[in-house]
């Protein structure tokens, strides 16, 4: 199993709630505590940004965040700016996705201008935590972020764009794990 440089185990599958997840996490955490490993082993799960737009999310995430707060474990989320672009290339400028110079997008509520989609996605999660979910005490970590794939490279999207995307994803103050 891969781990991030902050020691967070990384698992390739994204868990989407369900009534079984939280009790399973609590059971794992109780075992971690019984072994005296709390503070050394984080018990958490990863989420797609899709969960932010779901009314079910508050019912599911609030108890999860309460658990993560108690366990001092991070909230992991996946960002896929390039996947958004590929789904509708006509509505998302490629430069905005690949950290290239562009006019950016201004958030109508905060008036913040984002020059790339990744930072916009990250701020979406940061904004939701204290406002909608009443939590400021749970660390946020990117668990997965995808850029252009081999198929795109073969279509001349270019290695340069992928390298720039990967460079930006792996720099900055947040702990993150980039999968290929």
TrEMBL record:
Cited InterPro entries: GH, Glyco_hydro_17, Glyco_hydro_17_plant
Highest taxon, organism lineage: Eukaryota
Sequence ranges of Basic and acidic residues compositional bias: 154-166
Record Gene3D superfamilies: Glycosidases (3.20.20.80)
UniProt entry keywords in alphabetical sequence: Glycosidase, Hydrolase
GO molecular function ontology, one term from the record: hydrolase activity, hydrolyzing O-glycosyl compounds
Gene Ontology biological-process annotations: carbohydrate metabolic process
Bilayer-crossing regions: none
Keyword Hydrolase included in the entry's annotation: yes
Span list, region Disordered: 144-180
Family: Belongs to the glycosyl hydrolase 17 family.
Name of the protein: Glucan endo-1,3-beta-D-glucosidase
Species of origin: Oryza meridionalis
Lineage: Eukaryota, Viridiplantae, Streptophyta, Embryophyta, Tracheophyta
């Amino acid at each position: 199993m891969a781990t991030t440089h902050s020691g967070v185990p990384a698992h390739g599958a994204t868990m989407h709630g369900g009534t079984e997840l939280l009790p399973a996490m609590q059971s794992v955490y109780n075992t971690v505590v019984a072994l005296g490993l709390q503070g050394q082993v984080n018990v958490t799960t990863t989420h797609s940004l899709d969960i932010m737009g779901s009314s079910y999310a508050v019912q599911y995430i609030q108890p999860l965040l309460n658990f993560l707060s108690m366990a001092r474990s991070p909230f992991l989320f996946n960002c896929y700016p390039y996947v958004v672009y590929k789904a509708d290339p006509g509505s998302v400028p490629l430069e905005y996705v690949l950290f290239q110079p562009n006019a950016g997008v201004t958030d109508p509520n905060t008036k913040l201008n984002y020059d790339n989609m990744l930072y916009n996605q990250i701020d979406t999660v940061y904004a939701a935590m204290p406002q909608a979910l009443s939590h400021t005490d749970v660390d946020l970590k990117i668990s997965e972020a995808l850029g252009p794939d081999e198929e795109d490279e073969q279509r001349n999207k270019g290695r340069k764009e992928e390298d720039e995307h990967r460079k930006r994803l792996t720099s900055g103050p947040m702990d993150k794990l980039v999968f290929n």
